[in-house]
Amino acid sequence: ETISKSVTIIRDELTAYDPLLNDREQILVFTKCDLLDDNALDSKRRELADVGLEGAFISSQSHFGVERLLDRLAEKSVAWLAAEKAAYLALESLPKMESAVPEGPSA
Question: What are the phi and psi torsion angles at 36 (to 5°)?
Fold first, then answer.
């Protein structure tokens, strides 16, 4: 099965669950990359580029790529947090809506 086909299946499943999930940034993480030679890694990188995805290649056994992945996630988390904060501030700046629920009887 190709990366392209697997990504399509995963994206279809995400869309079926919640269409907004496909709007989020996606990083495909390949594990056990210590078992692949350089040619196989290059081939997977090209396939990822063809489907417009970013990939991380790691090995928990040899720790290959783990530090690089953690650095990338740390950098991205700063951007994600900034975007979340901006969205929150934008919501806070909207006019408050009056409650449509009537208050209880006066005593």
Answer: -100, 145
Contact criterion met (CB below 8 Å) for 59 and 33: yes
pLDDT tens digits for range 54-83: 789 999 999 999 999 999 999 989 988 888
Q: How many residues does the chain have?
A: 107
Q: Which of 65, 54, 50 is nearest to 2 (CA)?
A: 50
The C-alpha torsion from 21 through 27 and 32 to 33, rounded to 10°, is 150
Q: What is the dihedral of CA 46, 51, 56, 57, to 10 degrees?
A: -50
Which of left, alpha, beta for 73 (phi over 0: left; psi -120 to 50: alpha)? alpha
Q: At what angle do helices 38-50 and 3-17 cross, to 10 degrees?
A: 50
pTM attached to this predicted model: 0.63
